[in-house]
Amino acid sequence: MSTTSHPPINELFQAHLAEVAFWQSVADAVAIELTKIIRHARIPGKVEARAKTTGSVIGKAYRRPETHSTLPAFGDLAGARVLVPFEADVEPVAHELKNHPDLTVIKDETKRRKPDELRYQARHLDVVLGAGLGVELPTKFSGGDTRCEVQIQTFAQSLWASVSHLVTYKRELPDDVHARVNRLVVLCEIFDDEAQQSRTLALKNVDALGLIAEELRRYFFGITGEDQDADQAIALVGRLLPALDDVERSTYPELLDSFVNEYGERLATLLTDRPEARGLPWLLRPESILIFERLTRKPARLAQVWATEFQQADLDALAAAWGPTHIG
């Protein structure tokens, strides 16, 4: 017999052991969709996912027996987390998640600390999986929604959360320790604020070379999931930049967007289907998108620039891999 002082631990233990693989499949399915979301949004983030361990389930039942005596009472048996570089990246991820056809958001909460609190910050969304994701219920299922808890945090917020659990988690602290940890919280908040402001100012003052290199990196990440070094991208784009005239340089983000929208499937095939096996090193680089765009729109101008910078055989091989186009 269970009471609020003595939760049904053995029953929870057996029930969760029978379901933990299922909840891991739920977390994995959500992680796949979150990875698609950050790539579609071209945000170089990181996705993590896991099922709650049986030991954690038992521990929570002992700590909160009045509310966690059955598995359906746990809303976090599956969890996923998206880590993003900037605070401004949180909302676009949440927006796409809310508009996902096979994920229904039933709760959306932004956890922010009060001035006198030492708590982590994150955007929390509880989602229910639809049948379209193909996650099958186990033979023995405790019932309830096929739910996953999703957190969206900046890297700085995640760093604070990881460290704070080692120092402050669910404990009262002496004033001197409290003050030290509060400094860590503020440092993380300052880092996020300064990073966002620096990014905004940098984008306002960036030259055409930097802007084009950054856009190519973002699109390459969106297609392949690989984020390349910014300095390398700038160095290589600098050698290809004369293939664009002055007007094209100033409007290249729009030109690039229309090109990727039209040729997205062809780009994805070349850049993700074992590109290294094609023997073309350029396919492993974001600048390949610019090369294919120029091959499509201004092949003669690209050929003229290429002749002074790179080997002709490489351009011939890239043109053969890209195939015919219909743009003059």
Question: What is this structure's SSE topology?
Answer:
Blueprint: H1 9-40, E1 46-51, H2 54-63, E2 78-84, H3 90-98, E3 103-111, E4 122-129, E5 147-154, H4 155-167, H5 175-205, H6 208-224, H7 230-240, H8 246-250, H9 252-272, H10 287-297, H11 299-309, H12 312-322
Parallel strand pairs: 2-5
Antiparallel strand pairs: 1-2, 3-4, 4-5
Helix pairs in contact: 1-2, 1-6, 4-5, 6-7, 6-9, 10-11
Description:
The chain is of the alpha+beta class. The protein folds into two domains: 9-156, 2-Layer Sandwich (Beta Polymerase, domain 2), CATH 3.30.460; 208-322, no CATH class. It contains twelve helices and five strands. It has a five-stranded mixed β-sheet with strand order 1-2-5-4-3. α6 packs across α7 (230-240) and α6 packs parallel to α9 (252-272). The N and C termini lie far apart (79 Å).
Give the gist of this structure.
The protein is α+β, with helices and mostly antiparallel strands and 328 residues long.
The secondary-structure element order is HEHEHEEEHHHHHHHHH
Radius of gyration: 25 Å
Largest sheet entry: 5 strands, mixed
Measured by DSSP, the beta-strand proportion falls in: 5-15%
- By oligomeric state, this entry counts as single chain
User: Whole-number average pLDDT?
Assistant: 87
Please indicate the count of domains. Answer: 2
What's the number of extended β-strand segments? 5
Major sheet: order of its strands?
1-2-5-4-3
Q: Structural class of the secondary elements?
A: alpha+beta
Question: So how many helices?
Answer: 12
The CATH superfamily title of the largest domain: Beta Polymerase, domain 2
Please write the CATH class name of the largest domain: Alpha Beta
Choose one word for the global shape.
elongated
N- to C-terminal distance: 79 Å
Q: Which residues form runs of ≥5 with pLDDT under 50? A: none
The CATH topology of the largest domain is given as Beta Polymerase, domain 2
CATH architecture of the largest domain: 2-Layer Sandwich
Helix content: 55-70%
